[in-house]
Amino acid sequence: MQIIKSFLHLNKGGLRVSPVQTDLVIQKMLSVQYAKNHDLIIHFLQLLNVLQQLQAKSEPLAVSAPVAFSESEGIRIGHIFNFLMQHYDRNITLEEVAEEAHMTPQAFCRYFKKHTRQTFVSFLNEMRINEACKKLTSGNFENISAVAYTCGFNSLTNFNRVFKSVMGYAPKSYIENYFKNVELVG
Domains of the chain, with CATH numbers? Predict the structure, then answer.
């Protein structure tokens, strides 16, 4: 148990798993998702064990502790996040979100980077890709292009480039791997 505690402490900012290792991790995560009763605990511990073993071959997502917000900063950043979640599906300009935060674009960029450790564009792209992944794995979509446009991307080429940089796979490969792993567990 101490090994798992140590692993969790070292990786509290997240852990990037290489594409080669992703299939195994997805399989273990899905086994946790579909487990019931006591099996849930067993599968969860197996997942932690696999992640701990892969740690030497992986890299942390963040090297420092998560950012702590004061109450007023938390309210402001929460307002920004809510705005982005409500409008990620359309073109959002830096000026528009800065105005929403009652800041100049330059001040907003500094503020956002300080509090999220990401640029505004990187954060928005990751949010959009996260929403795209939800749509793609639901199986309820017309085509990849439709998902790209409904998630706020204005071109399929840009969507494919950003998707691959964030997820490590092209969208089509991501879908194939996801459903292959679902079949293994189900």
Answer: 2-60 (no CATH), 71-117 (1.10.10), 123-185 (1.10.10.60)
